[in-house]
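Quick look at the format.
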Amino acid sequence: MGRIRKGVLGGFSGTVGTVIGGSWNGIDYMRSLPTFKKGRTPSQAQLEQQARFALGVRFIRSMADLFMITYNKYANKMSGVNSGLSNVLKGTITGSYPSYTILYSLVYISRGSLPNALSATAIAAAGGSVQFNWVNAGAGIGKESPNDQVLVVAYCPELNRAVYKKGALRSALTDSIQLAGFAGKVVHTWITFTSADIKDISDSIYTGQVTVLSE
């Protein structure tokens, strides 16, 4: 029997359903139970939970070091990786066993209180790059600053590879990321912003699915 300390999304110890929770150095973690014990056939519900969990972990691992930063403040006594995984498992996985998929438009690559752009787009550009463009609310609106830096992310499901880049200032209104290695493949894209001192970050915006052009 597991003990949940801070609600359904908080840390817990022991076993809850098919997930094991624990704590290491004050950081809560979670991992999936083995599919079944020796000599015992797993139930259909267990198989479904294991498949969803495996899909979420596969995606998170492609950019684990990024989630450690972009979910740092959002996580409550939980690593950024586990907090990001919790977001994916809560409501972004769809389909029927065993063919589950992730609704990437519902995934948050970052969570925070810094304003994002009013609108943002991502388009395929020459040379195997993807160009991001955005519109700002304007200087002095809330915590928004023209000196905030953009962070752009692209993920290729076929390769389970992610590329991300911290680049231009918010005031530049455009930036690009080089994805020549993904030529001809579909990538999902996001944009977010960090403050100049990297103490604040925004909720990410999903900027759509793009097919990377050949050079």
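Next, a different chain entirely:
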Amino acid sequence: MNDQEARRRLAAARVGRLATVTPGGTPHVVPVVFALVDDVIYTAVDNKPKTTVALQRLANIDATGRASMLVDHYAEDWSTLWWIRVEGSAEVLKVNAEHQDAPTKRERPEQVVIGLDALIHKYPQYAGHPRLGPVIAVHLTRWRWWEAAAAT
């Protein structure tokens, strides 16, 4: 796998695992849908049932400013396995005043629009859901990958 193929596979992946670290140093990993735009991954707190939009991942990013994402392909034919892990600085972007209780600190409307447009384009389920919560932007600075085919 080369840089271009890693980028293509990451962008095409339907789900990733977003990893953050609590202020106390405990790992926190959650599955998320996401969109890649240039060197930024966007994911949003959607309107699926939650008790609050003040989620642990948001507090972790506010505290550390870092995140990592892992996408992978599994198949019974182990010669086709691969994974891609990206890391970078992360920020929580405020969408609107409705989400003031979330631990968001930054307002970057242009970044929010870019991220939400990319998510709506990739996931039609987002269209028509005006109650999207904070957006996470991970500015990628490190790429790592592995594939079984290259290991043989």
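The chain has one domain: 3-147.

See the schema section for token definitions.
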